[in-house]
Amino acid sequence: ITATKEGASxxxxxxxxxxxxxxxxxxxxxxxxxxxxxxxxxxxDRFVLNVLEEGNFQPLMKHFLKRFAPxxxxxxxxxxxxxxxxxxxxxxxxxxxxxxxxxxxxCSDHWLVYSTVDTGRVSKTDGLTAVHHRKVGNHY
Length: 140
Known about the structure:
Layout: E1 2-5, E2 8-11, E3 17-21, E4 26-32, E5 46-51, H1 58-65, E6 80-82, E7 88-90, E8 95-107, E9 110-122
Antiparallel strand pairs: 1-2, 3-4, 4-9, 5-8, 6-7, 8-9
């Protein structure tokens, strides 16, 4: 997930993303309340869901799993270009979706963020979506 708001940018590697609706196309993302990107994911905010490619996702995954100091540039060394909504698109992404937050539901230590898709693009039609299988589900 990448987002820009009021001149600041943020990013996170999303563990829980699920399609939620067809008309309009929408999905949910679980965002921990203590994540820096949480303040970029309020109703009406816009962001990009970057879909990583199997066989090419490890460097990006490792980069965005790092803890960043407050104010640090999360995109240093990462190739990006601007989406129509102003958010960064990862140049190495298999595909991306430009989205708007439609609603949020509080779920204990996370927000379940429902977003609709405005537009998107698939860069490689023959590429496969990366899937990262975590060994446990009770911590990141």
